[in-house]
Amino acid sequence: xxxxxxxxxxxxxxxxxxxxxxxxxxxxxxxxxxxxxxxxxxxxxxxxxxxxxxxxxxxxxxxxxxxxxxxxxxxxxxxxxxxxxxxxxxxxxxxxxxxxxxxxxxxxxxxxxxxxxxxxxxxxxxxxxxxxxxxxxxxxxxxxxxxxxxxxxxxxxxxxxxxxxxxxxxxxxxxxxxxxxxxxxxxxxxxxxxxxxxxxxxxxxxxxxx
Length: 210
Description:
The chain is α/β, with parallel strands linked by helices and 210 residues long. It is 56% helix and 13% strand. It has helices spanning 13-26, 41-50, 60-84, 95-105, 110-120, 136-150, 164-180, 194-207, and strands spanning 2-7, 31-35, 88-92, 128-133, 185-189. Helix 2 (41-50) runs antiparallel to helix 3, helix 3 crosses helix 5 and helix 4 (95-105) packs antiparallel against helix 5.
């Protein structure tokens, strides 16, 4: 099974993903935990370009194709082999991020982005995508505080530096995309304590057959 976690910056994806991986392992299943960008060796180098706040002049289409390159390599080198070996794959972001951020956020055509991503991943889409939904102000405050604490504001803060309006479009984009793909993309209320949010995640994991 292939599961992805999505959401705006600071929505708690990383925390919920870590808990989900432990939860799945406790049920005796092998798990591969990965992320985008940066899930492959090539992806690590592309991540350094894509998330560096000093690269603010990257155009929307150049950004798109860098993400597609990262994803194509990630799928062939990491995700498909893990699935073939019988592991559950859990990824922090995947193709839906590009459709929402570059589509609803940047103004590119989401349906065209879906087609391009489908080519990049060779038709491999998750069985379940959980979108952590949180108000934008709270998410950005969390994300910027985290980056400051880790000292990565410059190295990985390009999206955190975007405007509130951009992140609002992204949040609404996730909601709109979920409505178009109700069988796969599920919205999770990310407000409340980590335990409360993870309880909601567990319900959806169980419904997916884990």
